[in-house]
User: What shape does this take?
Amino acid sequence: MPQKFLALIAGKISEVVASVTSAGAADSGKIPALDSTGRLDQSVMPSGIGASTKTLTAFEALAAGDFVNEFLDSGTLKVRKADATAAGKEADGYVLAAVTLGGSATVYPLSGSNTQLATLTVGSTYYLGTTAGGVTATPPSGTGNFVQKLGKAVSTTELIVSANDPYYLA
Assistant: This one.
C-alpha cells in the first residue's frame, strides 16, 4: 500500500502519495517512499551513493537472479550467463531483472545481495552451478569444471554475495 501524507498545496490541505522513484529535478521537494524490497530506489540516491552497477548489452536472454560473465564480443563488453563448466565463463556479477537478448542489463558486482533466487536453503553456502546462470549448494566436481563460491543464503530467495576467485578441477 502506498504511503500517503497531508500537504498544504495552493492553500488547501491535500493527500499526496510518497514517490518510490525519482525523475530528477522535476521531483524536487517530494517525500520518498521505500520500494517493495523495503529499500530506497536507486533513482532517489545522490550520485556516487548506492550499488556500483554496470549497464551492458545482453549476449543472450537473462533471467532475474542469474549470475553473469562479462566478456568482449568483437571489442564490445557484453554479458552472458556464467557457467562452471566453461573456462572463461566465471561469474563477474548478477542481474536482478530479466533481460532479453540484446537488451540493456544492469549488472551488480559480486557483493551485496541477490534477492531474485528461489529454493535456497537458509545458512547454506552456494557456488556457481553447471547450469548456466544458476547456483548450487554442492560444489561442481567434474573434470574441467571450476569451483567459485558465491555466498550464503539468508532466506529461500536471498543470497548474500561474497564471491571468491574460482579454482579449476583437473
